[in-house]
Description:
Blueprint: H1 5-36, H2 42-46, H3 48-74, H4 82-102, H5 113-139, H6 146-173, E1 177-183, H7 187-197, E2 203-210, H8 216-223, E3 228-232, H9 236-248, E4 252-255, H10 259-265, E5 268-272, E6 275-279, H11 287-323, E7 328-334, E8 340-346, H12 370-377, H13 385-391, E9 395-397, H14 404-413, E10 426-428, H15 430-434, H16 441-453, H17 457-470
Parallel strand pairs: 1-2, 1-3, 3-4, 9-10
Antiparallel strand pairs: 5-6, 7-8
Helix pairs in contact: 1-3, 1-6, 3-4, 3-6, 4-5, 5-6, 8-9, 11-12, 11-13
Amino acid sequence: MLLDNYGRIKLYYICNILLITEILLEGITACFFAAFSVPMTNTLIKFRKSIMLLVKTVLVVAVTLGFIEYWSSNYVETLFSLRGNFVVILSFVLVFVTFSSLYGAFRIGINRIHEIVYSFSLAIVFTNAVMYLELSLIARTLISVWPILFGMIYQFIIIVIGSYCANTIYFKLYPARKILAVFGSDNAGFALINKMSRISERFQIESGINAERSTFKDICQHIDKYEAVAICGVGSELQKQIFEYCYSKCKRTYLLPDITDIIINNSYSIQISDTPVLMSRNRGLTIEQEIIKRIGDIIIASIALIIGSPFMLLCAVAIKLDDGGPIFFRQNRITKDGKIFNILKFRSMIVDADREGAKKATDSDSRITRVGKVIRACRVDELPQLINVLMGDMSLVGPRPERIENVYEYTELNPNFDLRHRVKAGLTGYAQLYGKYNTTPADKLNMDLTYIETYSLLLDLKLLILTVKVLFMKESTEGFDNSANSNVKASSSKKEVKKEDK
């Protein structure tokens, strides 16, 4: 039975009243905290996780009420009796929460505010797309899309206001901890400290101590003065001692991991009699996982090529009209077990861009063409790699395929870099999504090993969905700075990378 007109009007006004009330409550709370610097009592601090859960719930409810409003007032033919409507509402909530979780929208206070808004916005777009299909199936015809589009604008406004308020509340409940940095001589440790220092609202690094010039007793005395400790590049034995001391003193720790830490962190806990044991399989993918992964690669890459063919044709024409050069760029790259293959990409640089040596792309690289700037920004230049996936040289998800010169250079600096070649190179992957184009080789290796050690088909699916998020994020395509090419010289036709003699 359909709701009568009175019921629909009543539901419409109830939704508006609740919606406005929630926005005002969030806004007033956030502004009150921000303007008057209301101190957090111990009671509030103790329940801060519950408070943040409540804040996130309010956001979900507010967006859901926006959906109920445009649905009940514009798609009367899709309304059921009371129970049937609850099923539709529940499906919206489940889809929205799923996409929001996948895109990290609920990582309030951890991700930057613009990334939270962007993640929620993507979740809204995909959720409403799913609901459009669902409502069309209920109506047994394609319904008008305009009410949904206007409703999405309403939801975007809710998300912008709600995200800002939630972020303000988070940092009142979770003020930046005073951190002591314990570091060795490793440059990676200093890089981590610099990165943490730039996020002052989360990390407040007030002091540092060189582990190589201090005794363990001195380090402990310094730790007692701070709320947390960042451990960067110290020896394994000292690291163990610091961890044990911090655990005994209930001090939070931040660790820059090495390969051993990653392997142990992703190992399995088993019980041998009355003794707990950690087991690491250290084998990469099983044969069953490789077969299923390959079948998925073929199916998804084939569909993507069919859907993306108009965009690829447009891109090819633009490249040809821009400078008349070749459309595709081919280059030798390394994939599973060190196998060399010829990667295929849309050409985004001038012809013979590597005539002066195999340089890494920088932000202001003059070799990038006008069309190249556009297709690199939105990753369209990577689409021809779908052909590499069909040929079996690559997978949809896996470590970034590096050029031969880079692999030789990185492996010389860190012999463990070759461990990432236990699986096929990927069009997208853990390091590509969570890192940047200019992420250091050590960080890339750590992220690739995390992917290999935690591999599952669900992880592949999650990373494929996350790929949509990073397509339009400028940070993910950020190039190297000019110092990255300081050791590259003009070379012969082999275009080898040479290091300056020290």
